[in-house]
């Protein structure tokens, strides 16, 4: 029997700290949950007897393997990793044959269906491999199947491909293997990846049209600035006629940019470099992250998107038996926003000190009231994973609605703004023609 130090909260919100004896970590969690306690932290009391070294993940007791999982998370984040995506490892500038989010979502869904249908894991992977078309994931899957044939656990097999499977993905699979809930965890991961892929595709669709219009407009402006406007300026200067104020202004601005183009380009590049440098500083990154969340329309949508991802991942981790404090440490970087990361870590410190989850998050003044109320309900009822899933569903629906509305409004706004600018350039060029024609009469 192993001994564990635990910190938990009962239905009345009282903080309990004590020692519990159980065969392993999962049994300890089960006993505490049976007493309607919300586990904040659960750590094994190390034995004074030296333990023989064993290969990573093989023959090690469950508590030691979970401790190794937590250590793996901590090492990952200390190296500057990001949990922004559950499928991909740390981003690199030139990553060959990167597995798409869509492919990972499809792989997880197929594997979840096969495992939940009762097929052995290795046969499930072999069936998916045979049906898989040409994809960067196929050679990875082939290597995983070979490792399973050699008796390597699934979590260790996917851990050997860090460019495809992040440490968080690997850790969740390992926790699911130890808890015997691989099928459930794969279902949750598949649903999360599918929802993320759906939102990403919607955002790309929304940005495709304004992006195309912006590029087309930039080309038109470039041609007019360097070819058309100088020609007309030369013609009008030869006529010696008085030009309208609009034409004079446009010609003057165009002449300034052409004459000082290198200086203008260097100034813009310097401002961009200064912004990037400031964003990388601790104070600057936090301030810019806070400003992003306060942007009109876009800031609210971004916050809801990040909260939806955090709630979904937190639900998966809590359902897999990860303590609240450890789960908050892991998910703090998911949104890739320093303001939300700092708020989660601040709430985590308060939770460890014995305060409630909902109340600790409310103290940060950054999370919406709906989330706080729902977390309070889940905390009191002892059903945090279920409540977190519902909150994630609600915010994902709101984000999708905001994206749909934004798409409908963005197209006429883009057409109107760019159309007005083009019209101004055309009028500034042709207005002197009408003036000169009137003077000739």
Task: Outline the structure in words.
Helix content is 71%, strand content 5%. The protein is elongated. It has 17 helices and three strands. About 9% of the residues have low confidence. The N and C termini lie far apart (107 Å). A three-stranded antiparallel beta sheet has the order 2-1-3. It is mainly alpha-helical. It folds into three domains: 60 residues, Ubiquitin-like (UB roll) (Roll), CATH 3.10.20; 98 residues, Receptor-associated Protein (Up-down Bundle); 246 residues, Up-down Bundle (Receptor-associated Protein), CATH 1.20.81.
Show the helix and strand layout:
Elements: E1 2-9, E2 15-22, H1 25-34, E3 38-44, H2 62-78, H3 101-116, H4 121-131, H5 137-149, H6 154-159, H7 167-179, H8 182-239, H9 245-259, H10 261-280, H11 282-293, H12 298-319, H13 324-331, H14 338-352, H15 357-363, H16 369-381, H17 384-440
Antiparallel strand pairs: 1-2, 1-3
Mean pLDDT reading: 78
Helical stretch tally: 17
Low-confidence stretches: 47-65, 76-96
CATH architecture of the largest domain: Up-down Bundle
Biggest β-sheet: count, sense, barrel? 3 strands, antiparallel
Number of domains: 3
Classified by CATH, the class of the largest domain is: Mainly Alpha
The gyration radius over C-alpha positions equals 29 Å
Calculate the terminal CA-CA distance, rounded to whole Å: 107 Å
Which class of secondary structure composition applies to the elements? mainly alpha
| Strand order in the largest sheet | 2-1-3
Q: CATH superfamily assignment of the largest domain? A: Type II secretion system (T2SS), domain F
Order of helices and strands: EEHEHHHHHHHHHHHHHHHH
Helix content: over 70%
């Amino acid at each position: 029997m192993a001994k564990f130090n635990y910190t938990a909260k009962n239905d009345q919100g009282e903080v309990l700290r004590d020692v519990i004896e159980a065969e392993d970590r999962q049994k300890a969690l089960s006993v505490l949950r049976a007493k309607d306690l919300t586990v904040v932290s659960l750590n094994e009391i190390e034995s004074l007897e030296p333990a023989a070294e064993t290969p990573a993940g093989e023959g090690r007791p469950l508590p030691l393997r979970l401790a190794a999982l937590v250590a793996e998370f901590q090492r990952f984040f200390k190296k500057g990793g990001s949990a922004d995506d559950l499928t991909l490892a740390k981003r690199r500038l030139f990553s060959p044959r990167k597995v798409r989010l869509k492919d990972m979502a499809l792989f997880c869904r197929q594997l979840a269906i096969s495992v939940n249908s009762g097929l052995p894991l290795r046969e499930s992977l072999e069936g998916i491999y045979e049906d898989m078309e040409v994809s960067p994931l196929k050679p990875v899957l082939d290597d995983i199947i070979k490792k399973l044939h050699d008796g390597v656990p699934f979590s260790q097999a996917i851990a050997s491909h860090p460019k495809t499977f992040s440490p968080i993905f690997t850790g969740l699979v390992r926790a699911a293997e130890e808890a015997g809930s691989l099928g459930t965890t794969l279902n949750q991961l598949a649903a999360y990846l599918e929802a993320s892929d759906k939102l990403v595709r919607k955002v790309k669709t929304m940005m495709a049209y304004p992006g195309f219009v912006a590029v087309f407009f930039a080309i038109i402006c470039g041609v007019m600035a360097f070819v058309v406007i100088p020609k007309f300026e030369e013609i009008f200067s030869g006529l010696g006629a008085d030009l309208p104020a609009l034409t004079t202004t446009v010609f003057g601005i165009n002449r300034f940019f052409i004459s000082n183009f290198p200086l203008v380009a260097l100034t813009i590049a310097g401002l961009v470099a200064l912004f990037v440098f400031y964003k990388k500083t601790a104070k600057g990154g936090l301030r810019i992250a806070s400003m992003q969340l306060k942007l009109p329309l876009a800031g609210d949508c971004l916050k809801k998107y990040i909260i939806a991802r955090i709630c979904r991942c937190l639900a998966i981790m809590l359902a897999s038996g990860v303590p609240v404090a450890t789960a908050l440490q892991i998910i703090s970087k998911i949104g890739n926003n320093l303001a939300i990361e700092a708020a989660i870590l601040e709430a985590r410190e308060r939770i460890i000190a014995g305060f409630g989850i909902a109340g600790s998050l409310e103290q940060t003044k950054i999370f919406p009231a709906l989330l706080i109320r729902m977390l309070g309900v889940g905390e009191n009822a002892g059903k945090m994973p279920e409540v977190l899933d519902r909150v994630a569903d609600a915010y994902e629906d709101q984000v999708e609605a905001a994206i749909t509305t934004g798409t409908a409004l963005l197209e006429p706004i883009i057409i109107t703004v760019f159309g007005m600018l083009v019209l101004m350039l055309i009028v500034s060029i042709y207005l002197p023609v009408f003036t000169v024609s009137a003077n000739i009469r």
